[in-house]
Design goal:
Helices cover about 60% and strands about 0% of the residues. The chain has 23 helices and 3 strands. Strands 1-3-2 form a 3-stranded mixed beta sheet. The longest helix is centred in the middle third of the chain and has 34 residues. The radius of gyration is 24 Å and the shape is globular.
Length: about 600
């Protein structure tokens, strides 16, 4: 695999040029200037993103929603440029190694923000499965609701929704004018994600749920007032906001949606997709190179899948076996509760294996929940939401229980290891507990690292007693194939002229994913160019680094230490990860 990556990985040279090299009077002053820069940017980020501030545990803005107006986005772009200019005035050469790493990651983060504004991604803020309209109804799960003040803040946010929705509408209207609109096909089925929140009775709204029962910290004397204010906010703000959005989507946005599916068809689209590839892989690679890596991985994994089929004794072609998996009742459950129990059993088993893989484990726990009904039909198989920064809410692995005939049991092990432990929850929770890191790094997210780690985590099941059943092992391989197909399909759609049907057929021919899952996934790739590339590219890099470390260290290699090194700097670009592992190898090699 190292050979495959070597073909495409000319690791980014951005970091050697991170900040301008110039003379500084003293190291302490330079470090102080960098720390102040980080603190100033963090404060601006919290002020301009109150929902994010609440998520990370800063409750100064709990009564506000983000300002997403066109003018606010212009201010954010200018702010990123101003911070970048300040960063370039700092003498990188006088910084410690740790601060140089912080400096370089910060620089890349700012440059990506600026590039995103160049390509006007903020003018396409939602899809049929994600956006403010699907996240807002989950607000009760993401904000504190323990006191009267918490409830007053919550009501204030409900009252702000109408303006919040209108700001998004104005953004998308500007997108129509500038030619930055979504493909029509990925908007199919958007109506329920909006219309389900247009209710005649406010108590039927998902956002009314906190008023049904109050915690002990809210005196009984306040219950009637808060219920009345909550209901009024839903009637006068939330419902009109969703109604305005639905009207806009029906009358303006859908008619303006484009018939093409590739990002290359947007204004300056080919340059935009090339940026997406670099952003989500963190590597200086081309779409064509990524496509070729994907084809090579598909061929390798397909051979491994065939070996598993042979082990089962199944008589028939690959396609026959996949049809068998997609249709045989033994692989499916009839009730959501059964699916959730299967997930819980897998994760409890993995919990007990974690100390064999890691020296460092996070303090904060995780839980499992079903995906909310209003988004389940159009969303992915599962997803993860990180814990609250103040420790008041656990991380959650959301399992899609819609259409159980498309949720096979043979996928459960790989899926659960990816989304919870040792995947997203373990990595994210450890990162949030890195007290020696600047705040921006504790909450940084690099797709190639985070998703690459989660895919690597699926494979760790092979080392801890999972995938004993050949069908479950085939499920693991079909998940790996799924991510390999993404390299082919995403670049195919957005750069090489593939149609949606071509992409669906390619994935159906090479994986055991159900047709429903394949279709929703392809639509996701269409609406989110480049993001799907991070998984396989990141996993390949982590596996490459592990194999390299094992070869270099021999008997000195310690898997638990290796995992601590990989996770110990948080979510980082792949070239930073490479440097960190190489430094660890050097240190271990010099030990007696």
């Amino acid at each position: 695999m190292r050979v495959i990556l070597a073909v495409i990985v000319a690791v980014a040279s951005l970091f050697s040029q991170g900040c301008v090299e110039r003379t500084a009077d003293e190291v302490g002053g330079t470090t102080s200037a960098l720390e102040q820069l980080f603190a100033d940017e963090w404060q601006v980020r919290l002020e301009s993103n109150p929902l994010f501030a609440t998520e990370v545990g800063d409750h100064r803005y709990d009564d506000r929603l983000d300002d997403v107006s066109v003018e606010a986005h212009a201010r954010r772009e200018q702010s990123a440029r101003d911070f970048l200019a300040r960063l370039k005035s700092i003498d990188r050469g006088s910084l410690s190694a740790a601060d140089r790493e912080n400096c370089d990651i910060f620089k890349r983060m700012l440059e990506q923000r600026i590039a995103a504004y160049r390509f006007k991604t903020h003018l396409m803020p939602l899809t049929n499965r994600s956006g403010f309209h699907t996240s807002f109804p989950q607000l009760p799960d993401r904000v504190p609701l323990a006191s009267v003040q918490d409830y007053d803040n919550y009501v204030a946010r409900l009252r702000a929704f109408k303006t919040y929705a209108q700001q998004h509408i104005l953004l998308m209207r500007a997108g129509i004018d500038a030619g930055y609109v979504l493909p029509r096909v990925v908007l199919e089925g958007y109506e329920p994600t909006i219309a389900s929140h247009i209710v005649d009775d406010p108590t039927a709204s998902l956002l009314y749920a906190p008023f049904a029962e109050f915690p002990d910290g809210v005196p009984a004397a306040e219950h009637q007032r808060l219920r009345a204010e909550g209901a009024d906010a839903i009637v006068t703000s939330v419902v009109p906001g969703y109604q305005a959005l639905l009207d806009f989507m029906d009358k303006e946005y859908l008619p303006a949606a484009r018939e093409t599916v590739g990002a290359s068809d947007l204004p300056d689209g080919r340059a935009y997709y090339e940026y997406c590839v670099r952003r989500f892989t963190t590597l200086d690679v081309t779409p064509e190179e990524v496509h070729e890596v994907g084809l090579a991985e598909v061929a390798r994994i397909r051979a491994e899948m065939q070996a598993v089929i042979d082990k089962t004794g199944f008589q028939g072609s690959f396609g026959d076996f996949v049809t068998f998996l997609r249709t045989d009742p033994q692989f499916y459950v009839d009730r959501p509760e059964e699916l959730m129990k299967e997930v819980a059993l897998v994760l409890k088993k993995m919990d007990g294996e974690l100390p064999t893989l890691f020296k460092t484990l996070p303090r904060i726990p995780y839980g499992i929940k079903p995906v909310p009904d209003f988004i389940a039909p159009k969303t992915t198989t599962a997803y993860y939401n990180r814990p609250a920064g103040d420790g008041t809410r656990a991380g959650y692995y959301y399992v899609n229980c819609y259409n159980l005939a498309s949720r096979p049991l043979y996928e459960i092990e790989a899926l659960s290891l990816h989304e919870a432990v040792p995947g997203h929850h373990l990595q994210t929770a450890i990162q949030m507990e890195l007290d020696d890191m600047p705040m921006f790094r504790r909450y940084n997210w690099v797709t190639a690292f985070g998703e690459g780690w989660a895919l690597y985590a699926e494979r760790l099941g092979l080392e801890t007693g999972f995938y004993q059943d050949p069908y479950s092992d085939f499920g693991r391989l079909t998940y790996e194939m799924w991510r390999a197909c993404r390299l082919v399909v995403d670049t195919g759609i957005h750069y090489l002229g593939w149609t949606r049907r071509h992409a669906i057929d390619f994935m159906a021919e090479n994986s055991a994913l159900t047709v429903h899952n394949i279709t929703t996934e392809v639509d996701r790739y269409i609406s989110w160019p480049g993001q799907a590339l991070g998984y396989k590219i990141g996993e390949l890099k982590i596996r490459e680094l592990r194999a390299h470390a094992e070869s270099e260290l021999g008997g000195r290699f310690d898997l638990r230490e290796f995992h601590d090194v990989v996770l110990g700097s948080g979510s980082v670009p792949l070239d930073v990860l490479d440097a960190n592992v190489e430094a660890w190898i050097d240190r271990r090699s010099q030990e007696d």
